[in-house]
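Long-time lurker. I teach an intro course on protein structure, and each term I like to show students one example going from raw sequence to a predicted 3D structure in token notation. This year I'd like something fresh instead of my usual example. Would anyone be willing to generate the tokens for the chain below so I can use it in lecture? Attribution to the forum is fine with me.
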Amino acid sequence: MRRLLLALPFALLPLAIAQAAEKHDHDHDHEHASLDAHEHGVARLNAALDGQTLELELESPAMNLVGFEHAASTDADKAKVAAVRAQLEKPLALFSLPPAAGCVVAQQELESPLFGDKPDAHDHDEDHGQAKDAGGHEHHHEHSEIHAHYQFTCATPGALKNLDLAGVFKTFPATQKIQVQLISPSGQQGVEATAKAASLKF
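-- Reply from a regular --
Happy to contribute to a lecture. Here you go:
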């Protein structure tokens, strides 16, 4: 599913990584980029348009979407996680793709420790043995993320003039900004979207 995005020359959000590194310079684990870039209120979006295929990959701290990062144990927590998952399963509504583009969802994949798709955070020594800071403190489990990956087939990709993220900000108001890496026929750009500037040009 990640073929297209991985094949394209993403610059790994150099600005975002540099900013994150500055903010987390104190004894933080620089081997694990997702931990470096983990900042509440900030999400990341990779968007790639290649021919009729549009791929969107959203990565966000769980705090931005569900309001917590621990495993859902109470009924209320489980209901919140289920509601967020249902919202993420409707990307056409979430990303407000223009109807004229005729985009349909070809594939989608949601991943998060909160969804139970990956080993429990307490098992992280198997997968994430490096997820300790210089003092040996385990902190991976404090940084639950939600990854949503979508692939659309668009009948008229030329109609994709803009990518409107207003729906994301409205649906998940704890998200204050989204660092976007956009690749389209016109080139590659890194931009920062906010609720007041949520529309990006392809």
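Some talking points for your students: Residues 9 and 177 are 23 Å apart (CA to CA). The chain has a mean pLDDT of 78.
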